[in-house]
Amino acid sequence: MFHWEQAAALPPAAVDVTAVGEVLIDMISHRYDSDFVGDSFSSHFGGSPANVAMNVRRLGWNAAIITSVGREPFGQFIVGALKEAGVNTQGVVRQAQHPTSMVVVSKSRHSPRFIAYRQADRYLEPTEAALALAASSRILHFTSWPISLEPARSTVQELLAVARQQGRLIGFDPNYRDVLWEQGHDGRAFITELLPLVDVVKPSDDDAEHIFGPGSPEIQLQRFLDCGVPLVMLTLGSEGCLVGCAGDVRHLPTLATEVVDTTGAGDAFWSGFYSGLLAGLTVEKALRRGSATAAYKLTKTGAVVDLSLAAIQPWEGD
């Protein structure tokens, strides 16, 4: 499916990208590196799949999301924000018994501390609308969050089966963290068994170490390739990205020149890359668009910024 100098074959479909997974409220501390006790917090829209869907929409493609929120004001706020961004919300389940999931996050200049309170996001259901979106999307994107707990894990497996049956491209963000995974279930083994079913992954070097243990970037990249993933994009922060594709490994330097806020940079990369594939760019140029989108986002504060093709084109160069 993937070759450096060729465009990926994406059959036409009703929806360009459908993102599956967590949408939640981030409660961010007012103090830096907070221990949370006695601190105060501000509530913010959160969730990697929502970031991807919103970014894709801002880059000119239609996007949908499959997720689950509560019926309380937080859930209403999330659905309203998605609709305002132009994201298709037919795949959003409104839970009556479970409130919207929440993550308490420390404000930090480095790696933040967090405590996850999992509620509605884990009760993702294979509704008719969700299954229809999986079948009718050119790209289906998901993260490790929804597969970390049942019943969402089984729902995602059902959605993947439908997407594969229809020949859709499947992208997986393997942002595995042991603390989020169901106790007694081997998350690392499950992910390695799942990898042959996806077309493209974009782990960070940190993600790779959480799944496979220590190793050089070259070793980590090969571990994903050995699991049968056709395209692996291993992001290395300021060192750029190491990519394995069609039996060839290449290093792509970062396009970032200024770092104001790293929040959501990985989601921006995904969004730009998908935008490139949808536009019929070669894999190499789609990767550059992903890097350019992340570079632009790094100059702005917040996970989702005012993206547009016009804004990122100067970062792409030729």
State the major sheet: 9 strands, mixed
**CATH evolutionary superfamily:** Ribokinase
The CATH class is Alpha Beta
- Low-pLDDT runs of 5+ residues are none
Instruction: Please tell me the CATH architecture by its name.
Output: 3-Layer(aba) Sandwich
Task: Give the helix tally.
Answer: 10
- Tertiary shape: globular
The average pLDDT is 90
Strand order in space, largest sheet: 5-4-1-8-9-10-11-12-13
CATH domain topology: UDP-N-acetylmuramoyl-L-alanine:D-glutamate ligase
Structural class: alpha/beta
| Order of H and E elements | EEEHEHEEEHEHEHEHHEEEHHH
Helicity, in percent? 25-40%
- Please provide the count of β strands: 13
In whole angstroms, how far apart are the ends? 24 Å
Strand content: 15-25%
Number of domains: 1
Radius of gyration: 18 Å
Structure characteristics:
318 residues; 10 helices; alpha/beta; nine-stranded mixed β-sheet; UDP-N-acetylmuramoyl-L-alanine:D-glutamate ligase; four-stranded mixed β-sheet
Explain what this protein looks like in three dimensions.
There is one protein chain. The chain has 318 residues and is an alpha/beta fold. It has a single domain (15-316), classed as UDP-N-acetylmuramoyl-L-alanine:D-glutamate ligase (3-Layer(aba) Sandwich), CATH 3.40.1190.20. Helix content is 34%, strand content 24%. The chain has ten helices and 13 strands. It has helices at 48-58, 73-84, 128-135, 152-165, 187-194, 205-212, 217-226, 265-278, 283-298, 309-316; strands at 15-20, 24-32, 41-46, 63-70, 88-95, 102-107, 114-117, 137-143, 169-173, 200-201, 231-235, 241-245, 248-252. Strands 5-4-1-8-9-10-11-12-13 form a nine-stranded mixed sheet, sandwiched between helices. Strand 12 (241-245) and strand 13 (248-252) form a beta hairpin. Helix 1 (48-58) packs across helix 8 (265-278) and helix 6 (205-212) crosses helix 7. The longest helix has 16 residues, at 283-298. The radius of gyration is 18 Å and the shape is globular. It starts with 14 loop residues before the first strand and ends with a helix. The mean pLDDT is 90.
